[in-house]
Amino acid sequence: MPQEALAHGVLKGVGDFYAGLLHPIVVPAELLAIAAMGLLVGRSGLATCRRGIPMLAAGVAVGLGLASVVTTSGTTTPLVVAALVAGAIVTADQRVPPWVAAGLAALAGTALGIDAAPEAKSHIAAVTSGVATIVGSTALATIIAALALRVEKHWQHVAAQVAGSWITAWAMLYFAYQLALLSR
Amino acid sequence: MAGSKFGAVGAAIWFLAVVAAGSALGHTGDDHGGGGFSSGFMHPLLGPDHVIAMVAVGLWGVFLGAPAIWVLPIVFPLVMALGGAFGMIEVPLPAVETGIALSAVVLGLCVAFALQPPLWAAALIVGAFAIFHGYAHGTEMPVASDALSYALGFVVATGLLHLCGIAFGNLARWPVGKMAVRAAGVVIALAGGAYLSGVA
């Protein structure tokens, strides 16, 4: 029997809602972009969280909407760029003004929304999955931001920087890999 | 306070479990890199010369004290990634395996003698060797591999090896533990010597 030709597969057997909800968690580029943004806005303070997290959610919604009207590809790179910038700022233990974090969150969110756009069989399934993706990514970013916001002890402070360092190193390797592919 | 530490450990385990669950992805991995985490994660762990050097960095950090104990694990992955980039784009770097074996010898001796140089000197030593380790990972990175997951796997594995070293190095709070840690440094230096001389 012929199989469905999905260029962008979904999580099998979990239903549209959970497929959308889990998408930002099980795709490494999306997960790390969210983690980096969460750490950045959390470390930058409550005012930054208040702007950054809604902008991330709005970005995801815009991205999902864009993906439904235009064909897009190559959204992994913007996600990694956002992760790299946010990770580097966290590693350097710097804080950013709310508008900078909001802009970066909007970029990451839009790329994530395009990347996570479902190829569902019906409009209802697509909307269900899309709403779940917005909920999942926003909740994850909020949790990480809340943890980063509550950093008080020295080891917690260092742990945030170590996480930022790992994300930055990962993003650097990704771009090196892309460069290597171009040169081969 | 204990609860928050358990929470942090739980979060780390959750994170690893989620990222490692590559085979459950609907994505093929070509576009997102869903399946290479385990191979990237295992790569540093399957090379004993890598393992002992990474653990030695953590052990040495304990003797160096703050802030080095935390600066080194933050800086090392970044420099290692730079080395990995050099490896992937095929920047010539001579005697990579020798450099890796030498790193185990030098770092092992630093632990064995509980050396405490200035932070800049320690960072220079560790950073120089990180280039060699990263370069080896970069050149051995399979072309067809899921770049994202593979890179994430080996960065996380390297970081966890550092943490293992730091955790073991905490034994140095007690006199007997300090001897044990320094003895571990001797073992690491000897193992590095075996790799350097071609015995192992």
From TrEMBL, chain B:
Record-linked Pfam families: HupE_UreJ
Spans traversing the lipid bilayer: 50-79, 91-114, 120-136, 148-168, 180-199
Xref: InterPro entries: HupE_UreJ
Domain of life: Bacteria
Keyword Zinc: no
UniProt keyword annotation of Magnesium present: no
Key words, A-Z: Membrane, Transmembrane, Transmembrane helix
Protein name: Urease accessory protein
Provenance organism: Chelatococcus caeni
Lineage: Bacteria, Pseudomonadati, Pseudomonadota, Alphaproteobacteria, Hyphomicrobiales
